Structure formats: C-alpha cells, structure tokens
Amino acid sequence: MWLAALAILIGLAILVWSADVFIDGATALAKKFSVPSFLIGVLILGIGTSAPEMVVSVLAAIEGSPELALGNAYGSNIINIALVLGATVLISPIIIRRGIVKRDLPLLLLITVIAAWQLRDGTLSQVDGIVLLILLVAVLGLQIIMSIREGYHEHEDDIVVANAGSAHSNNLEHLNNSESLEKLEPSVTRGLVSLIIGMLMLVASSRAIVWGAVELATLWGLSELIIGLTIVAVGTSLPELVSSLSAARKGEHDMALGNIIGSNIFNTLAVVGLATVIAPIAADPVILSRDVMAMGVLTILLVTLCVFAFKTKRQFGRTSGATLVLFFMGYTAWLIQSVSM
Q1: CA-to-CA distance for 36 and 42, rounded, in angstroms?
Q2: Whole-angstrom Cα distance, residue 334 to residue 332?
Q3: Helix, strand or coil for residue 37?
Q4: Taking the complete model, does pTM exceed 0.85, yes or no?
Q5: Among 13, 63, 199, 233, which residue's beta carbon has the most beta carbons within 10 A?
Q6: Rounded-to-integer distance, Cα 19 and Cα 243, Å
Q7: How many CA within 13 A on the CB side of residue 203?
C-alpha cells in the first residue's frame, strides 16, 4: 500500500514538470514551422497525451479484459470534456473560432454517434474495430488538410471577441509573449527534444499514478468496470489535464482546446478500435445506458456552449467551465450510486 501511495505522489510531481516541457516543445515547433496551434493541439498533444489510454487499453485487451479498455476510453472522453476542459477554462477562458464550430465539434459529435450506434447490440466486433481505425485515418487527414488551409486567418476573430478590458490585456500579454518567443527563434532540435522528453515523462508518470491507484482500488474491492471508468480514466487523463492547463497558462488557447478534441477523437477511434481488433468486446448494458449516454449528452452540451460563445462573440469562459465541472461531479456521483446498488 505504501509503495502504491509513493508511486502516486512521485508520479504527480513528474507529471506537472513534464507537462511544461511538453508544451514548450510543441509551441516551439508550431512557431518554427508556422503550423496552427490548434493543429498541434489535435495531432501532437491530442495523440501524444492519449498514449496512456492506448497502452492501458491494448494491454487490457491482450490480457483478456477488453471491458476495461472500453471503460477507460469512454471514461477518459467524459473526463477530458467535463473535468479537463472545465478546469482549464475556469483558469483561462478560451476563444472559440469559426473552424472549431463549423468543422471540429460537428466531427466530434458524429464520431460519438458512430460509437453509440456500434454498441447498440452490446457488442463490438473486429469489423467494428477496423471501421474505427479507417475513420481515424480519414479524420486525421481531414484535420491536417483543413487546418493548414485555414492557417492563422481565424485569429482575426480575436479582435471581435476581446470586448472586455481584461480580455484585451490578456491578448496584449499573449502578443508580447509571442513576440518574445519569436525573437528567441527556437531551434527544431530543441523543440523536438523537449517534445519527446516531455511526452515520455508524461506517459511514464501517468502509468506510475495509474498503477498505484489501481493497486489501492483493488485493495478497496472496486469492480473492474468502475476502476476503468474512474481511477484509470482519471489517471490516464492526467496528461491532458496538466498539458491543457499548461497551454492555457502560456496563452496557447487553441492548443488547449485542440488537445481535448484530438484526444477524444483518438480515444474513440484508435483506442477502442485497436482494443476491439485485438479482442472483440461484449459490453455490459450499463455502458450504453449510462456511460455512452453521458458521453453523448456531454458532447452535445460542449457543442451548444461553444456555439453560444461563438454566436455571441464571447469567450468560452468560467460559467461554461463551472457547468462542465458540475457535470463531472454529477457523473461521478452517478457512478458511486450505481456501485452501491
């Protein structure tokens, strides 16, 4: 027990440090190659921070526990939006851009609907897994093409959205920081080294935290599904949480939001797809009636809040963040109640 608790404490300390290194590397590469921050968030941060979910789910499928993989992926999606994004915008509001509303969020909603439809009969076959992996390739290709085509033009919306004094000063501070970073002319080598080291340490520290948490949860007698939906899902979502908070703190709001959207797309398509190809999944009916439904409702809520923020020319701010965090608290209470019944 003491070893598990020590793994959690040390893992958390390394996790916070590695997130800053990871974001610094991603930011340096984005500026060096003039790649939109949102695309960096979707591809590098989104996929990179989903590595723990990938490792946990694949190992679970190989070891004959595919239901843990499913609970991990869907639980992580719920936590990414409700807790990670909610906590991020509570600290630093995000500007919602046109492309996010018109392309990225509808795409996330469509993928969520496909995931629910595949589980309508309570099973996921290897064919379902192959379909998810094919969709992953198509979606990532679309994200790359559209984001590069749009480039930085969407940043013109900042002038319209920044209608408050505090928001204006935040934008000025962000511009000053950007100018300072550009003067530093970050090297590709330094950016890549920071990115790789940060990602490896994120994965390693999150694995240590997950191991310690699962060991403690097993001692407390929690079920495999609940461990996957809560402790493992929260633990494997720690890279998204700390990297999004770090990105928002450094003024990289597009990167923070892209991290969440990219991670959820990757979890639904790649994590579940790979686990299903390895071992078909016969899901507990409660996953569809509770967890997939919660994921769907939360995704619709996210789309609604983002569209409202965009249409009213407001930031995706603290009220929306508080709403998402409250959803997470309600979902967690629902899980605890279902276990006690």
Answers
A1: 10
A2: 5
A3: helix
A4: no
A5: 233
A6: 5
A7: 17
